Amino acid sequence: MYSLVLTGKMSGIDPQAWLADILGWITSHPVHCLDDLLPWNWKPATSAAAVAA
Q1: How far is the first Cα of the chain from the last one, in angstroms, to the nearest whole number?
Q2: What pTM did the predictor assign?
Q3: What whole-number distance in Å separates Cα of residue 44 and Cα of residue 26?
């Protein structure tokens, strides 16, 4: 877990937001696109709900 948090920090993202986001939809994500879930490829949600939070 520490390495996930540190990797997120080193990638310049909020590790808690990244983990919460990817863990929410990892089961429905295509296996051949797992690279999308890596912290350096992840893009945070920009929905109105995310901005309000």
Answers
A1: 25
A2: 0.70
A3: 15
